[in-house]
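Entry 0007
Protein: Antibiotic biosynthesis monooxygenase
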Amino acid sequence: MVIEQAVFHIVEGQESAFEKKFYELSDIFRHADACEKFKLIRGIENKQQYILQIHWTSLEAHTDVFMKTEEFKHWFLAMKPFLAERISMQHFENTLV
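Output (structure tokens):
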């Protein structure tokens, strides 16, 4: 399993609209074969910062398959107007089980 952590910096004042649009389109993750679970969390000190954490079956399933789908392209284009900065993305794996 691979854990993706994507950090979103949202345009000030657009937080509610971003959350609404994200939740409207969140089925993209629910229906992705390689997605085991996901959650979106918001910063406390910085309300414009969000972290999307997704558990994928493998790195390849995420980067080589999911990110090349039309559904992902549609989702990204819908999120783009809310972004104040580029999305910062990293992948992690469990070290303790």
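Curator remark: The CA atoms of residues 1 and 57 lie 5 Å apart. The chain has four helices and four strands.
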